[in-house]
Amino acid sequence: RANVFAITTGSKNLDTMLGGGIMTMSLTEVFGEFRCGKTQLSHTLCVTTQLSVEQGGCAKKVAYIDTEGTFRPERIKEIAERFDLDPEAALENVMYARALNSEHQMELAEQLSQELASGSYGLVVVDSIMANFRVDYSGRGELSERQQKLNIFLNKLCRISEEYNCAVFLTNQVQSDPGANSLFGPTSKPVGGHVLAHASATRIMLRKGRGDERVAKLQDSPDMPEGECVYVIKARGICD
Ligand code: GTP
Ligand code: MG
Prior knowledge:
Layout: E1 6-7, H1 12-18, E2 22-23, E3 27-32, H2 38-48, E4 61-66, H3 73-82, H4 87-92, E5 94-98, H5 102-116, E6 121-127, H6 131-136, H7 143-163, E7 167-172, H8 178-181, H9 193-199, E8 202-208, E9 213-220, E10 227-234, E11 237-239
Parallel strand pairs: 3-7, 3-8, 4-5, 4-6, 6-7
Antiparallel strand pairs: 1-2, 8-9, 9-10, 10-11
Helix pairs in contact: 2-3, 5-7, 7-9
Bound molecules: guanosine-5'-triphosphate and magnesium ion.
Magnesium ion (MG) binds near residues 39 and 68.
């Protein structure tokens, strides 16, 4: 895996747990309840990908697929300042697209292959992978069709990550199953079934800790042991 890059998350604890950061050439998935930092982590990676290899990046651009409308350009600029990058230039290096529904999300992946052929991209973010699919295939009999479409989308991303040596960072929601788990708090099972579980080489569970603190648990990794660590969310992005 000589030419795989590790992109720093902004948190040393998280990087250490991951063996350096978010890896190119494969899919990484973070999942967890609301406000655990999935979107903030996505924003931080938009900036750190642009750093030099010595600084923990790969000096490349970012493609960002936003399904929930939570991308904040101002946050990118704040994080850029932390890493001594020009805020405007850093923002310009993030190609942003809002996926309005699952069909549109699939089309965007198609367009992505063309855009990424330039070789100038190091990261693709999808925040969040399942939101559109869950809305568009919410009927009882629609699950297998949803999983088929999801599989096509993920295969495309897998191919892109390997062909253009970029990292793919997916955020995911957890199942809300209040009936079965009301006594024990929210469930921590990601949605997307085995199709998504199989596609994600690295799977990280996020949850809230005390105050600003968040806890990440590495559940699946091709070459790192299971582990847990704490990170915090600040205006300047993810840190320790
Ligand atoms: P959903 O998309 O709703 O599932 O949540 P998420 O996991 O994407 O959460 P997100 O990344 O949006 O994190 C939101 C949390 O980040 C908030 O609850 C805040 O605690 C924290 N946060 C956001 N901005 C700041 C900031 O400027 N300073 C600090 N200290 N915390 C912030
Ligand atoms: Mg979010």
